[in-house]
Amino acid sequence: MSPESTGQNEHYLRVFWRGFRTWRGNRPFWAGLFTILGGLPIAYFPYANMHLGNVTLAMSTTAGAGSLIIGILLVTLGLTMWFHHIVRVFAGVAAILLALISIPVANIGGFLIGFLFALLGGALSISWAPGEPKADLGPAGAVGEKSGTGPGTQESGPEFHSTAAVPQQQPEQYDTTVEVDGGRHRAG
C-alpha cells in the first residue's frame, strides 16, 4: 500500500460525521429534534422553582401530572420520528395535537416555548418525504456509460451498468360516448 492511500488515515471524527449526515438525511431529523425540544419545557416548568432573591416562586399547578405526560409523549414522538420514520405522519399529527392540548394544561404550553417547538416539529414531520436515490452518473455524464467506450465495444465486470430502454406506458383511451341508458348499470 502506498502512503497516499485514502481512507486508511482518515480521522475518526470525519468518519463519524459522514455517517451521522447519512443517518440524518434518511429521516425527519429536524422534526424529531424540535419535537423533543418542545417536550422538555412542557414537562419541566410545572415542577420548577424560580428563586428571586429570598423569594421562591413555585410554578407547580394542579395539572402537573398532565403536563409531565404531555412532555414525555412529545419526547417519545420525537424519538419515534428519528428511529421509526415510517410512522412520521402519525407522529407529526400526534405532536401537533399534544402541543395544542398543552396550552390549557401545561402553563400555556411551557410558556409558549414548548408549544411552538412541538408545533414546528409536528409540521416538519408531516411535510417530510424521503428522497429518491440519485442516478449513478459516470464521468461521461450519462447513466451507465463509461468514458471512452464506443457503441461497438463490449464491457465486462461489475463497474459497467447496462441501461435497457424501458417503454413508456401510455394511458388507456377510454370511450367517452354516453351509452343509451345514460351511463347507469343494468343491474341497478
Give a verbal description of the structure.
It is built from six helices and two strands, in the order H-H-E-E-H-H-H-H. It is flat. Helix 2 (29-44) runs parallel beside helix 4 (88-105), helix 3 (64-83) packs antiparallel against helix 4 (88-105) and helix 4 runs antiparallel to helix 6 (113-127). The longest helix is centred in the middle third of the chain and has 20 residues, at 64-83. The mean pLDDT is 77. Helices cover 47% and strands 4% of the residues. It has a two-stranded antiparallel sheet. It has helices spanning 12-25, 29-44, 64-83, 88-105, 107-111, 113-127, and strands at residues 49-52, 55-58. With 188 residues, the protein is mainly alpha-helical.
Short description:
The chain is mainly alpha-helical and 188 residues long. The protein has 6 helices and 2 strands; from the N terminus they run ααββαααα.
| Amino- and carboxy-terminal Cα gap | 80 Å
The total count of strands amounts to 2
Structural class: mainly alpha
Mean pLDDT over all positions? 77
Taken in chain order, the helices and strands follow as HHEEHHHH
Largest sheet: 2 strands, antiparallel
- Uncertain runs: none
Shape: flat
How would you write the strand order of the largest sheet?
A: 1-2
Helical coverage, percent range: 40-55%
Alpha plus pi helix count? 6
Q: What is the strand content?
A: under 5%
Query: What does the radius of gyration come to?
Result: 28 Å
